[in-house]
Amino acid sequence: MTEQFCAPLTAYIRKSVDLTDGQIELIEKQSRIVVFPKGSLMAEEGIHSKHIYFILSGQARSYFLDDGGKTITWFFHFNDSFSSAKNLFITDYKSFLTHTPGTLTIEALSEVKAIQWNYSTIENLVNQMPAFATWLRTLNESFFTIIYDRILTLMTMSAQQRYEKLLQDEPHLLQMFSNHYLASYLSLAPQSLSRIKANVSHAHLSVAV
């Protein structure tokens, strides 16, 4: 059972490093399968995030409250052909690494099935498997780039630029999530997103004509 569920995770790791059958078996033994019902919280602001999850099925989102109390969706989490590291892995990363209260809340938007690791699990795998340590370093570098890009997007781009970046980089999100969640991802009111969508669509039609 575990081996079946771990196959997507080990396949993902093997995109970056080679794994022997014995190493795959070690990862499987250290992994736990968990299921979260729709609407449940996988992590919560103010609480130490003790686990990291590799999503197998379902959809979730991580979010925080800005200084004005507005909800900002940080990332969407899912596992399909469009997924990258930011979608596949779920945790409040700073809280997980520093053992401090988290700043993110993570909500299951549907039933979510995931592989769960805790901090000691990752330490054990790093100590026993140089290949896993190499992969983890690559993953950390990827996360740094992703988070840097996300912060710059929110801080430096106008509302329309943020929407146009979504169209360029993540157009699949438009079919996967509601206008309400997408507006939160772009740090907009839903009405503002609808207006920007109409303006961009009209501009594209004008160019086409």
Describe how the helices and strands are arranged.
Elements: H1 2-13, H2 21-30, E1 32-36, E2 41-43, E3 51-57, E4 60-65, E5 71-77, H3 85-88, E6 89-90, H4 93-98, E7 105-108, E8 112-118, H5 119-128, H6 130-156, H7 159-169, H8 173-176, H9 179-185, H10 190-208
Antiparallel strand pairs: 1-8, 2-7, 3-6, 3-8, 4-5, 4-7
Radius of gyration: 19 Å
Total count of helical runs of at least 4 residues: 10
CATH topology of the domain at 2-129: Jelly Rolls
Number of strands: 8
In one word, what is the shape? globular
End-to-end Cα distance, whole Å, is 56 Å
By CATH, the superfamily of the domain at 2-129 comes out as Jelly Rolls
User: Low-confidence parts lasting 5 or more residues at pLDDT below 50?
Assistant: 205-209
Series of secondary-structure elements, N-terminal to C-terminal = HHEEEEEHEHEEHHHHHH
Reading off the top of the CATH hierarchy, the class of the domain at 2-129 is best stated as Mainly Beta
Query: How large a portion of the residues is in β-strands, by DSSP E?
Result: 15-25%
